Amino acid sequence: MRINDTMPENLHRQGNWYQGRPIQTKHLLGNPTLIVFWSVSCNSCLVAIRQLSRLQSKYNDAQILFIHTPLMEEDNNLNLIRNKSSQFNVHGSKIADRDESLSKLFQVKYVPAFYLFDQQGKLRYIQSGKSNTSLLDNKLARLYRK
């Protein structure tokens, strides 16, 4: 995906939704949406997701979708994914991308990966491979000023 691309329409048909109901893209419009790709075997991912708790408090109407993508075969264990994600102090729907169809759709190369969409569903920011969320905070602040 590239900046200004539109949020994919078929998110609700992808992956294994293990927390929250499948959400159609049209229901995400109106508020900024953050899509977070992570993996249970990625320590940087866990650091980044802990930092998202602060951002979620600050921007409490932003939607967050967590998409787990496997880095190795052992990462496909749904119980492990559920247990690890239950430790997050953030709210949002959670999807296991066991066949990596969403990862391919978003062209994820590194995790953690953050895809920030504006209120109209346009991609405004991409960050991958870094756990620091300060730039993400700045981009969210800009979306709320518009």
Structure description:
Helix content is 29%, strand content 21%. The protein is α/β, with parallel strands linked by helices and 146 residues long. The mean pLDDT is 92.
Tally of DSSP helical segments: 4
Strand content: 15-25%
> What number is the mean pLDDT?
92
Q: Mind telling me the CATH superfamily name?
A: Glutaredoxin
Strand order, main sheet: write it out: 1-4-3-2-5-6
Computed structural class: alpha/beta
Could you state the order of secondary-structure elements as H and E?
Answer: EEHEHEHEEH
Query: Major sheet, described briefly?
Result: 6 strands, mixed
* Overall outline: globular
Q: Got a strand count?
A: 6
What is the third-level CATH name, the topology? Glutaredoxin
Taken together, the total number of domains comes to 1
Please identify the top-level CATH class: Alpha Beta
CATH architecture: 3-Layer(aba) Sandwich
Low-confidence stretches: none
Q: In whole angstroms, how far apart are the ends?
A: 23 Å
Taking all Cα atoms into account, the compactness measure Rg is: 14 Å
Fraction of helical residues: 25-40%
